[in-house]
Amino acid sequence: MLDRTVYDTYVRILKRELVPALGCTEPIAIALAAAKARQALGEEPRTLRVLCSGNIIKNAKGVIVPTTGNMRGIDTSAVLGALAGDPDLGLEVLSKVTPADLEATRAMLDKHVCTVELLDTPSRLHIIVEITGDHHTALAEIRDEHTNIVRVERDGERLFYKEVEQTQDDDAAEADLDALNLADILEFANTVDLEDIRPTIRRQIEYNTRIAQEGLTHAYGGRVGATLMRHYGGDVRVRARALAAAGSDARMGGCVLPVVINSGSGNQGITCSVPIIVYAKYLSAPEDVLYRALVLSNLTALLQKRGIGRLSAFCGAVCAACGSGAGITYLHGGDYDAISRTITNTLANASGIVCDGAKASCAAKIATSVDAAILGHEMSMDGNTFGAGEGLVKENVEKTIANIGKMAAEGMRETDTEILHLMIDQTC
Questions:
Q1: Which of 10, 97, 209, 333 could be 67's S-S partner, Cβ–Cβ 3.0 to 4.6 Å?
Q2: What is the rounded CA–CA span in Å between residue 2 and residue 189?
């Protein structure tokens, strides 16, 4: 029987983490900071200065900003957020953008009034937007979480401030994630009162299925999902990969449909949900079983990201695909041991994929990661797994997850720095 405190914690995690976001979350976070700064400014912006941590630059420089059609870049995100963003909408800050707003944004960008700089910071997720108007200046700062506004200023006067190191909310969120372990996650998935999580999971099914279908039927990015369907056949393994990739095709290609995220990422939210939805339909699984499989998948993905952090050189699609593999095994009646084997097999296979920023090829990495998860699942159902001592695999799944987390968070730190140096020069 799951402890009530753990039960409540897991419900709270799902409600906090599985929220809608419009477009790639890094440019959206920049737009949110700019919108908040403009709100404080109280007049038309004339110039903007955007300071970002390296990982924000990596994930925002190459992706199409949602609602713009084909506009890219950090400056686009900031200017559009300042001119048309609604800061009260969080990660859906750009959902009210109009054609007139886009024209105003293009005009402002043509004047080259927005500068972008690399921010010297220990945080991998850190944004400061400074805006100057005719009479005032304003500033907004986001740190560590995509919606975590820690400072707002007007003319040098603090309107809002939150201590970065000592916030009770941040400490509570971190403590919640520390409570995750696979055995309890599975027990929770098996026993949760679905009414406690139904709205959250239903929204994930609805939003992420819709954007996957959009990406499959319209031309976005490299059309990875459509390519898989056209050339690889139509069995459930291909459809699971293709629909997940198609969701990323659309999302990275500027689609205006929202996504329910996981670990702060829409791509990860798509990856740990869409393959399970595809398999559940194929297996004619009851709705309650689908919901429980998605609970397992989402929390498993969060368990692995816990030790890595929101942004790193380790591709988050791998963590999310482990979640989807676990959920697929669950749909097939797999127990704790079978689910553990699936996760281990997936990590032993695909843990070398690096994150080189948010862009169209993320869809291909999702397809590759889901393919590894399906292979890991099928090996597991046959009773096969990679053993302790083979690479980073340890004697149990929790230790394997911890090993991968340490490799990603510590061992790949220099890799992350080198990727950033290759993608941008020191002055951005």
A1: 97
A2: 10
